[in-house]
């Protein structure tokens, strides 16, 4: 099973798209969902897309997985950019420590539910 056919990855993508449609097309904003759902889904979606691309180009193919250190660096980098750097540079971004927790939970969910080697059918 490739990343793009992983049920958890597909669920995260679908939930993100549904949430965006509800907010942007119908103007419905549910406070906690509006504030944190995208942040919770960001890491499984971003890491999932990145993992799939790596599996297309890396010699290990479907056996390639991200290490814990790579995931921690990705989580830290994402948190630093979106919760420290951008809020200081632009008024459209707001620093929120709860977002960092959502990124961490999303990273952990990615690690547990998506980031595993898959066997190639022979």
TrEMBL record:
Keywords: Membrane, Transmembrane, Transmembrane helix. The chain crosses the membrane at residues 40-57, 69-86, 98-118. This is Magnesium citrate secondary transporter. It comes from Belliella pelovolcani.
